[in-house]
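pasting for ref
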Amino acid sequence: MDTQKLVYVMLLFLGSALLAGCGPSAAGPTATPALRATPTAVDTSLAEPAYPASAQAENSAYPLPLAPTAVPRPTLYPAGTIPDADAEVLFVTATETAPNVWTFEVTVAHPDEGEAHYADGWDVVLPDNTVLKVDIADQFTRVLLHPHDDEQPFTRSQTGLVMPAGTTQVYVRAHDNVHGYGNPVLVDLTTAVGDRYEVIQLAEEQ
């Protein structure tokens, strides 16, 4: 080997040795630790909580949203009528005058406009949608024969209504000759005073 080649080989050897000595050693004390990915923080404030099935069923220990309470409403309206018409029952007094025989006094409000538009009756309705009547041929429990333009609200009564034994609730609704029935008032015959009604049972009068 000539001198020039020997020098070239030695330079290569020295260069390799220098590079090996200056580079970081994976096992040495000065070795730079490998970088680890930093976990990304997750905002869980808006996440849906995972409720146990038992807690969902009991709806007690966990802040579960409450389902809206369904208000029972009977099918009181014949086809084609408007259930939210403006004939409004303001108050009902139900008095038992004999066993299972009742008198109802009903206060009605309606913007009567003469014969063309007025409240023409009110009903006492059983839970099975039977309308109580003294005369089965009557259109309503209490027929109102004329407008009450100058008497608002007004109260009319109907006596002699025979209630089936065991009846505990009835609905009272008013009707006008243009829009049909308004919203009914639920009367609980076992409760003396309620929302827009009072009940006087036979035993209370004796």
